[in-house]
Design brief:
There is one protein chain. By secondary structure, the chain is an alpha+beta fold. It is about 45% helix and about 20% strand. The protein is built from seven helices and ten strands. The protein has a five-stranded antiparallel sheet. Strands 6-8-7 form a three-stranded antiparallel sheet, with helices on one face. The protein has a two-stranded antiparallel ribbon with strand order 9-10.
């Protein structure tokens, strides 16, 4: 009896030790192979950081799953029945987590189609910022205010995607208001001198200046000059200051509503109109009677 227990303990001890060794080595290989795959993907000219990260995680999770199946087989677990159970469980979980699976499918679509990449400045679902991370579930943005915004991939794909980095340039569009009495062509010349004269301004596409609209207090002129995507923020801030100073030097007024104080004086009261006296005619008894009015007849 003791011999049988010893043999069983020996067999299971060897089996557990072998399974533990396979698990440790398999997990190490999974992480090692996934890192190698990531480095090779990053070296490929047609694979960017977003897609390489996705492939890296896909290879890692697939190898971990294979290691777990091998370990279970070493303990005598029937993997066929296990696969059936996992499949049924996956179906139930999938029905319960439809929104999450939508995010996963959208993440795979983003990784393949690549409408945006890590490092791009984009607008997703009404949120604007720099893409700092991208996985199967979420896209992480860092806004201009240095806030962290997490956008589900399903919402990112379901709404229009605005990528400001893909073209390498951003067009800076600024609208200025000038007085109706000012010379519009003179204002255009000042805008061109200031905005196009800046070394950050690009000549392709060609800068454009025109009248945007006629406002209640001003003629709104628009200027569009393209710069490198990284220079957009500083260039726009610098141009707002430089154009205002140039308008002041050239005598071009930037109108704005003024508060006017009106002194309220005394308004004389009108006297009621004086009605003319009614003329009386003598009656038969000597008493006075109203004069005959022809408009009443008789």
């Amino acid at each position: 009896m003791n011999q049988e227990i010893t043999d069983i303990a020996l067999v299971w001890g060897v089996r557990i030790a072998s399974a533990a060794a396979v698990l440790v080595i398999g997990l190490w290989l999974a992480f090692f192979v996934s890192r190698v795959a990531r480095r090779q993907a990053e070296k490929h000219p047609r694979i960017d950081t977003t897609l390489s990260t996705f492939l890296f995680r896909l290879v890692r999770y697939a190898l971990i799953l294979v290691v777990i199946v091998v370990v279970l087989q070493m303990f005598g677990v029937q993997t066929a029945s296990l696969v059936a159970i996992v499949g049924a469980s996956a179906l139930a979980i999938g029905l319960a987590l439809q929104g999450t699976l939508t995010n996963v499918a959208s993440g795979i679509l983003v990784a393949i189609v690549r409408p945006y990449r890590i490092g791009d400045f984009v607008e997703l679902n009404g949120k604007e910022g720099l893409v700092t991370d991208l996985d199967l579930f979420f896209t992480e943005l860092r806004t201009k205010e240095n806030r962290r915004v997490i956008v589900p991939n399903g919402q990112a794909i379901a709404n229009p995607i605005v990528n400001h980095t893909t073209a390498g340039q951003r067009c800076c569009v600024i609208v200025f208001g000038i007085d109706y009495a000012d010379d519009i062509d003179h204002a255009f010349a000042v805008l061109r001198e200031v905005m196009v004269g800046d070394p950050r301004a690009s000549s392709h596409p060609e800068p454009w200046f025109g009248v945007e609209s006629l406002g209640d207090y001003s003629v709104n002129v628009s200027a569009r000059v393209c710069v490198k995507a990284g220079d957009y923020k500083n260039y726009k801030a610098d141009m707002l200051k430089a154009v205002k100073e140039a308008f002041d030097r050239e005598g071009i007024e930037v109108p704005y509503p003024h508060a006017v104080e009106i002194s309220k004086g005394e308004v004389p009261l009108r006297s009621p109109p004086i009605k003319p006296p009614v003329k009386l005619q003598p009656g038969a008894d000597g008493a006075g009677a109203p004069a005959h009015r022809p408009d009443r007849g008789g």
